[in-house]
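Notebook B, p. 112. Complex prediction, attempt 2.
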Amino acid sequence: MAGSARLSEPAARTRGVPAAIGRPGPSAFHRLNPLTKATLATVTAVAAVVLGGLIGPAILVAVAVIIPAFAAGVLGRLVRTALLLSLPIAVSAFLVNLFFLPGAETVLLRIGPITATAEGLAFALEILARILAISGAITLFYLTTRPADLVVDLERRGISPRVAFVANASVQTVPAMVERAGQITAAQRARGLDTEGSVWRRVRGVLPIVGPVILGSIAEVEERTMALEARGFTRPGRRTLLWSPGDSTAEAIARWALLLALLALIVARIAGIWP
Amino acid sequence: MAEILVTGLVHVYREGAVRALDGVDLRIAAGERLALVGQNGSGKTTLVRHLNGLLRPTEGRVTIDGTDAGSMTVAQLAAKVGLVFQDPDRQVFSGSVRSEVEFGPRNLGGRGPELATAVNAALEATGLAGEQRTNPYDLGQSRRKLLALASVLAMRTPVLVLDEPTTGQDARGVDRVRAVVDAVAGEGRTVVAISHDMRFVAETFERVVVMRAGRVVLDGTPADVFAAGNRDVLGSTFLEPPLPAIVGARLGLGATPTDEALVAALETRPSGR
Amino acid sequence: MTLTLSGVGYRYAGAAQPSLLDVDLELPNATVIGLAGASESGKTTLCLVASGLAPRTVGGRIRGTIRLDGEDVDAWPMHRLAERIGIGFQNPGTQLSQVADTVFEEVAFGPMNLALPREEVVERTWDALDALRIAELAERDPRRLSGGQQQLVATAGLLAMRPTHLVLDEPTAQLDPAGTRLVADAIGRLAAAGASILVAEQKTDLLANVASRVLVLDGGRVVRDGPVDEVLGDPTLAELGVAPPSAARLRMAVAAAGIDTAVLGSLDG
């Protein structure tokens, strides 16, 4: 095993990176570079806030959310997820503005002491369109991009591998902790900890569960750190990537075009040129 | 004291329709010392978690001391069946060894001198009497495992279940675990242990139950289970009998699961060989 | 390439007593050395010191010298040592990076960190997978494998760094018999292929099978150092808190009863 010698016989044919790594997405939209998709989502969300009126955001939703989602084959999931995400805030914003918009006069409907107004309805619809645009844009990005792909792309563009690692590892932390908490709960219940009794009993049960979750995680951190260091994690500088999402000049131009368009929109809005 | 009766036990995990237990029938008399062996995935852990209610049967029934376990909560069953988990870091939370050991018996209503006696005895049995104020995380991994054992011992349950008690233990630790098993069984309490240390099993337990794919495939004394005829069955679960059993079979000495048994067989063998 | 520890002592940060005292150890090419001793006798500390994690990552104070082929490595940073000395731990799960969705990416993690050309990363990864016979696991999710398989993946990850020495701290402690067999066989094959391995184990049967020399630690000191059969066959081994291998124990029990141990025949395998 001395130094750089091979450990085993060379394979009959050369093998590359396994196909499962960096598998391309199912649609052209999926296959766009993650940064492009992120730019689209951000520009759409900000533009939805900046644009005045109802028509603007509505067109935005149609063009920047609905059509790409349809092309990517995720329209159904997007509608469900975006609605789910935005439902509480959308419903309350809609109702508040419908009934309680200050200075509104044209009455549409009276229910007891509260009044729905036409101005309220118009404003409520505008707010709704914005909320849908923002949640739709974010959901579209989320449904068509693997988080790890975005992190790899950012790493290729220059963020530190250590930072990239933390970003990726953070996603893992919650499910791992939840699982650990489940095992700890089982162990403490086996010692008579009552998890089904009164509120007071359950409160007293928090420390025996949270304690080991935290202590165990801390104890594990040292071992994990050692294992990472043993594999050269702290070597300064860049590292080799097995794969990264493709990019093209056309996409780069598109990203800049989107950002410039957003800038122009903001300027136009501030200068009062465009509603 | 408590007898355990498992009848037609089936357990299917919801997620993958995995049939972790496929019809297990088992009767464990009060005071028995039983070892449960089999490779990971054979159903051993699933089975023991039914004994204290952490898991409930999909089909079949578990009866503890005449009462259906299904009618008792986990907290109630904890007074009858004490289960020591394999990883001590999944339960340790106190700042001191003593308060850690007090947790279990306190939950069961222990107070005052009665509690102190139980805790002292448990600390003594696991060799931790001198570490009462030590922070558990200042003990090494293997002594923390003994702490986990002490914390369930102190609950003085009629049934004690140990999940892999000797993993990660050195020779002295294993001796201590063996001593605890002997002491507990000596009081007429039942001990069930999951283990993949075949030597420990042969030397410490009077009954061995071998599981594979959710079923019991062998059930008998160590001499029975580790006899030559069962070598293939054991091999199918990636288990090997302890060395004395293999040597004894090779020398035609009958069933000799431990060093002592082999020596005894050699001594009583008619000379002239 | 020889790893040499001379008069090495080590004290953890904030500890009242040193955990290692005056340890001499030489690990040349193509040698497997076993490390035995009771819990807390210093086996893990010695593994951490030999790999450089102590004091670099763990802190604490070290005495004595550690040399790789004659060169003092005291000033080497951890990542430089990581290319020469790989260290594996007993818990398979915590050694996985958790950011790899496939075994291939997990094993490639080390070479990727070394910024080697991509073709070389790929070649080293397949090479390490082949050496441990887990190439068919390449596209599996490492987090869903059995403990034994995970331990092999972790070891492959170390081998992909092409270290000159491998330090394994109780690699089979948490594994079931099937997993232990997988790992023990792999260690045996690596040894036969010329690897330099320092392996700490409670399972003296395993050491009897793969090691040529064994060191026994007691209270941080090396108290036995010699050929494997001599050290593990020593009747005073049990006093040091180490269980003799099954064959030795059987022979001792038979001899203690006044029976000629020849009657047992060969106890290999």
